[in-house]
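Subject: sequence -> structure tokens, single chain

Hey, anyone have a minute? Need the predicted structure for the following. Not urgent.
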Amino acid sequence: MNTQTASTRSLDDADTAQVVRSMAQAGRLAQRQLARLSADEKARSLTQAAASLRVQRDQILAANAQDIEAGQAAGLSGALLDRLKLDPSRLDEVAAAVEAVAALPDPVGQRIDRTQRPNGLILDRVRVPIGLLGVIYESRPNVTADAAALCFRSGNAVLLRGGSEAVHSNRAIHSAMQAGLVQAGAPADAVQLIPTQDRAAVGAMLAAAGLIDMIVPRGGKSLVARVQADARVPVLAHLDGICHTFIHAAADPVMARAIAVNAKMRRTGICGAMETLLIDANFPAATALVQDLLASGCALRGDARAQALDRLITPALPQDWDTEYLDAVLSVAIVDGLGDAMEHIAQHSSHHTDTIVTEDSGAQDEFLAGVDSAIVMVNASSQFADGGEFGLGAEIGIATGRLHARGPVALEGLTTYKWLVRGNGQVRP
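Reply:
Had a minute. Here:
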């Protein structure tokens, strides 16, 4: 098999499932080669990939313009177009994120712990790559670069399958990164892009048990639900980001107003955007708070007590409390204290990111201990729910389950471990 062209060949006359299997087999071979690269060699390869993104800037932006034009013609919302759009500044951020991953400590080979048994056996647990990962994603072309960089740096090969909205952008970004990696001496098939938007390719990835070691879906609820329902491969995922901000009675009004507007309106289309605002009935500046949001262009849907704050707040329907809007729309409820707020979050949160704003240290501690989400914040915007903001470099996603990894998943979350046992002739009685 010609591994240089495995990820770019046409599928017109090929069976989709067979091509996915062939690419997975090539990826597993490339991962074995990748495992032999040193930390410095992997870092240099990613630095070269970032440089290639900058060299091919014009081609990438031209490809992105095709996707934007097609998205506008298809009637994509402003929020979705914003997720899709690249400009010189955003593309430079994409390249910088790849460089940031290259600069991170290599997790592979790190010793987690060491123990010595009474019989003299020495046991080390060390981090190792998971193997071949499949990343299935929608809309945001930066995921192509982020996922490729994180998988490569952590010693994993990856099969990327992007959404049709960003097909031209994804291909251009992948082409640039792969060229940089190959120029640095890395195996081409360490980072492959599935060359078809046929939904059968997703099904083939989900069925590739024994070839693909883990699937990471990044996209809307329907995509992630399908992956979780159909996968025969372990899945690292979150369904949606129904993020809450609770304004406690003891919140500083100026801080609360600034955090609420930022948490919703900085970028409405990201998974860390606030989707429900809970306001303590005893918070003294509730009216000013909702008026700030309305003035920022946000539509508010509230319960009866929230509607009483401003005539522009429309009634919330039962499904609103369980909706990830990804747009300038927000659900608002008035609650009777911390207990009610935590109960609302327990019923409606997707366990992504939930925040309290308060000067009461006791309330802070109770919220941090009692809210069961991957990320729980105090006095900060939920828009900080991001691997880069956590100092992890880029992220491959935010996991909301309870197994393997939780919260922003970066290099460490893309490794597993093995036991290294050293003896000096011990035999078991």
